[in-house]
Amino acid sequence: MRFTKEEILSLEKGYRTNLINSVTGFKSANLVGTVTPEGDTNLAIFSSVIHVGANPPLLGMLFRPVTVARHTYENIKATGVFTLNHVSRDIFKAAHQTSARYEDGVSEFEAVGLTPWYSPGFAAPFVAESTVKTGLKFVEEVEIKANGTLFMVGEIVELILPEGMIAADGYIDIEEAGTVAISGLDSYHTTERLARLSYAKPDRLPEPL
Amino acid sequence: MRFTKEEILSLEKGYRTNLINSVTGFKSANLVGTVTPEGDTNLAIFSSVIHVGANPPLLGMLFRPVTVARHTYENIKATGVFTLNHVSRDIFKAAHQTSARYEDGVSEFEAVGLTPWYSPGFAAPFVAESTVKTGLKFVEEVEIKANGTLFMVGEIVELILPEGMIAADGYIDIEEAGTVAISGLDSYHTTERLARLSYAKPDRLPEPL
To answer: Which ipTM score applies to this complex?
Structure first.
């Protein structure tokens, strides 16, 4: 089956949104925790978080301007900090529910039944139930002119996870942690490892580690 | 276990790279196909592709400047087009092997045993063995000042996939397609669906679709 750009643009809006959200492949599943300067907490699910660099440790995420994530964006700009918390199989329904448009003043933590947890000296709330938790400070944002979205970059200031989950070479076994992957807008998946593969070299094929 | 930013910066380089590459969660797995103006093909695996928008249909990906992906970048800037091809369980070892530093003039297609396939009127090569194939044109790039990486945005001009894989609402069943997810730098995973969840509303909990 083949869609040209013109055919994509002529699709019914919901169909197009589902289709185009599926073509990138599997997505990361993170809950972003923020707080207003007055101390009101906010929690929102994001599927656009990607690795930007390891030294310094940087992550990036895409914001669409007019969405339910508006409070997340405003809180990060006001306080300079946010948290990323892996969505695991145990909390994926609660995580999805954070995308509902709750009234102003309602904390998604309370509404969906997740527990805010604070690390000493860090203003933004982590999700207690999440296995892999990252605290970040805002570094920069760049605008994508083509559609007015923003790519925001944060620097890791704190990383919290269970000890037994890190391999000798630093790899975190996020499958063992129960972390889920997202496809499209609303599909949640657990994973099964095929293999970790050795560093690729031109003169030999990769082997399972 | 807890790492501060200072502790992360003092880690051994390889350990830090594995660790920080794991914290974002699962990543998409795509082969990027490009061609030089002279017609020499190039193929490189990317784990940073994300959704940017559905109307117009935009995807984005991060480039580290001094990497094996240099040829991919130069080809896109020279020709204005590239392809994204899902990595499935059938080709994940060949896909990983594209990250080896082959000599100039060697096409990764031939070196790893994947087949270039061309759509009429589109210059960049697709991967014949890939189930979900997207042809894109370069739209813009923005620099991340914090580490000199580039976030590049492309617009979908063509989408090719098997007919039976699209749900009535436009969702592509990429699990059925055998698409894999990546964690860290080198771990490949198949998936098992927990559920598609209904659109979240404040007054009720999400239900499996």
So the answer is: 0.97
